[in-house]
Automatic annotation (TrEMBL):
It comes from Seonamhaeicola algicola. InterPro entries: HAD-like_sf (IPR036412), HAD-SF_hydro_IA (IPR006439), HAD-SF_hydro_IA_YjjG/PynA (IPR011951), HAD_2 (IPR041492), HAD_sf (IPR023214), PGP-like_dom2 (IPR023198), Pyrimidine_5'-ntase_YjjG (IPR052550). It comes from the Bacteria. One of its GO terms (molecular function) is 5'-nucleotidase activity. SUPFAM superfamilies: HAD-like. CDD domains: HAD_Neu5Ac-Pase_like. NCBIfam families: HAD-SF-IA-v1, HAD-SF-IA-v3, YjjG_YfnB. This is Noncanonical pyrimidine nucleotidase, YjjG family.
Length: 228
């Protein structure tokens, strides 16, 4: 496989950038700033599955960005029987986006692996995240310089797994799918999406997500050295 690979495409959140850790720190900060009396761990237990479902709806073009940002907070507070006014939820939503890139922990071995790959391959990002936020994450975590191109869903008007975003990224990178590989944590968005246009794939399995037969799978970025 690696003999033909010239370009490596990464997802960003949960793949290089430690979204869970950074997000938890951000909620702790904005709850303090806004005098929200709630246990962050308890909140996150309710919020995280709700957030994943809202992102699924967003990927499927069933909701817009504003609905995602408001709805995930509203539903999480409701699940905890916490009455929070609409205006405060809107403020928290904006504060979350403002402060999210203040924390920039990367997944274990991310820098190690990027340094290993950069001399052998051209590196790229394909992300469903919001343009203004993703650029800050890449810059403030000091990894932007590793990537020849960065493609986000707002540039293209569609989200992974839509083939248009992958084709856009490949055209931007001036590379064919058979010479490219996609690495990501979302089986639906990253793996299926990339496979559907002929890219190679490596699935980063996080938490308790299942293994998938026939798909090269890692559970730590360092394991990429086995394949690339």
């Amino acid at each position: 496989m690696t003999e033909n690979i010239t370009d490596v495409f990464f997802d960003l959140d949960h793949t290089l950038w430690d979204f869970d850790k950074n997000s938890a720190l951000t909620f702790n900060k904005i709850f303090t700033l806004n005098n929200i009396d709630i246990n962050v761990d308890e909140f996150l237990k309710a919020y995280e599955p709700i957030n994943l479902n809202y992102w699924k709806l967003y990927r499927e073009e069933k909701i817009d960005k504003e609905s995602l940002r408001f709805g995930r907070l509203h539903d999480a507070f409701s699940a905890l029987s916490k009455n929070v006014e609409k205006d405060l939820i809107l403020k928290l939503s904006n504060d979350y986006i403002t402060h999210l890139s203040s924390y920039n922990y990367l997944l274990d071995n991310a820098i190690n692996v990027l340094n290993y790959l950069k001399n052998q391959y051209k590196l790229h990002i394909i992300t469903n995240g919001f343009d203004e936020v993703q650029h800050k994450k890449l810059t403030k975590s000091n990894i932007l310089h590793y990537f020849k191109t960065v493609t986000n869903s707002e540039m293209v008007g569609v989200k992974k797994p839509n083939p248009k975003i992958f084709n856009f990224a490949l055209n931007k990178a001036q590379v064919n799918p058979e010479n490219s590989i996609m690495i990501g944590d979302s089986y639906e968005a990253d793996i299926i999406g990339a496979q559907n246009i002929g890219m190679h794939v490596i699935y980063l399995k996080v938490n308790n997500t299942p293994y998938v037969n026939g798909v090269k799978t890692i559970d730590n970025l360092l394991q990429l050295k086995k394949y690339l």
